[in-house]
């Protein structure tokens, strides 16, 4: 498929605290991807988040080391943004001068990376990958799910821990109050978690619990190999997934074993259910 067959015009934002690096990346991108429209630049992580909210680019180039918020911290906030469209999440490319930082993690393919100073041949590889992702966004086989995939928010959490040199133990139990009784819920028994404005519903096979902890906190505290974030407000236990189907509007839904629940899947999480 040629570039002119890609959906719509691709728009990008560059975030780097060094002006020379922004200028260099813009110039290199003009060489290897002339049809890409750079619609904004950001000098730090906070500006990067604001730019995504205001401009809603298709792709974001993020320097890992920036003041205010690092590139990874900015990416984590962007992954949880409420922009009125649960299908929206830009493709992300991290820019780093330190090739020892989590290169093996980048190879998982959740996001891509390029090294400073930017080299045209390596940037071309990244651009080719991005183009392929844009072409394939609507070519999904929902009857299969990829057990090697990791939701981007949990992947970013793991990357943040790797960069900081820290490790965070995952929760084994959730505390949930029912009346005057505090229940200790084994996370292995949790089928899924769904948040609203104030509470998160914790569903097991036998009982429903409500806790005052938002999904964005649970994402960081639950093992990403066990719980996938399939929607901004939803985590699902991978062992509870019976299958995936599409509704009458073509949107993906996760089916839960031995239950009638159908959990909506956002576009940003659709990578989890690509054909293997």
Major beta-sheet overview: 5 strands, parallel
Element order: H for helix, E for strand:
EHEHEHEHEHHEEEEEHEEEEE
Strands ordered across the widest β-sheet = 2-1-3-4-5
**What is the average per-residue confidence, as pLDDT, rounded to a whole number?**
82
Measured by DSSP, the beta-strand proportion falls in 25-35%
The total strand number stands at 15
Helix content: 25-40%
Distance between the termini: 21 Å
* Structural class determined from secondary elements: alpha/beta
- Report low-confidence residues grouped into runs of 5 or more: 138-149
Notes on the structure:
The protein has 276 residues and is an alpha/beta fold. It contains seven helices and 15 strands. Residues 138-149 have low confidence and may be disordered. Helix 2 runs parallel beside helix 3 and helix 3 runs antiparallel to helix 6. The strands form four sheets. The protein has a five-stranded parallel β-sheet with strand order 2-1-3-4-5, with helices on both faces. A five-stranded antiparallel β-sheet has the order 10-9-8-12-11. Strands 13-14-15 form a three-stranded antiparallel β-sheet, with no helix packed on it.
Helix-strand blueprint:
Blueprint: E1 11-15, H1 19-32, E2 37-42, H2 45-55, E3 59-63, H3 71-79, E4 91-96, H4 103-106, E5 112-115, H5 120-136, H6 152-164, E6 173-178, E7 181-186, E8 190-195, E9 200-204, E10 208-211, H7 215-221, E11 227-231, E12 234-237, E13 241-246, E14 252-256, E15 262-264
Parallel strand pairs: 1-2, 1-3, 3-4, 4-5
Antiparallel strand pairs: 6-7, 8-9, 8-12, 9-10, 11-12, 13-14, 14-15
């Amino acid at each position: 498929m040629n570039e002119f067959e890609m959906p719509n015009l691709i728009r990008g934002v560059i975030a780097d605290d060094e002006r020379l690096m922004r200028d260099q990346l813009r110039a290199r991108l003009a060489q290897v991807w002339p049809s890409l429209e750079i619609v904004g630049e950001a000098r730090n992580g906070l500006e990067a988040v604001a730019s995504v909210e205001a401009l809603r680019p298709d792709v974001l180039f993020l320097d890992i080391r920036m003041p205010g918020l690092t590139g990874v911290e900015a990416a984590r906030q962007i992954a949880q943004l409420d922009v009125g469209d649960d299908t929206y999440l830009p493709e992300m490319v991290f820019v780093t001068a330190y090739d020892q930082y989590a290169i093996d993690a980048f190879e998982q393919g959740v996001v891509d990376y390029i090294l400073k100073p930017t080299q045209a041949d390596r940037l071309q590889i990244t651009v080719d990958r991005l183009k392929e992702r844009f072409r394939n966004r609507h070519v999904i086989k929902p009857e299969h799910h990829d057990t090697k995939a990791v939701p981007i928010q949990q992947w970013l959490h793991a990357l943040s821990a790797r960069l900081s040199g820290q490790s965070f133990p995952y929760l084994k139990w959730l505390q949930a109050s029912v009346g005057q009784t505090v229940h200790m819920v084994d996370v292995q028994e949790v089928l899924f978690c769904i948040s609203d404005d104030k509470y998160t519903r914790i569903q097991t096979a036998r009982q429903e619990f409500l806790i005052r902890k938002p999904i964005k906190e649970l994402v960081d505290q639950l093992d990403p190999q066990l719980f996938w974030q399939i929607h901004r407000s939803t985590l699902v236990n991978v062992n509870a997934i019976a299958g995936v189907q599409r509704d009458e509007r073509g949107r993906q839904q996760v089916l839960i074993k031995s239950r009638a629940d159908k959990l909506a899947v956002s576009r940003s999480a659709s990578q989890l259910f690509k054909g293997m």
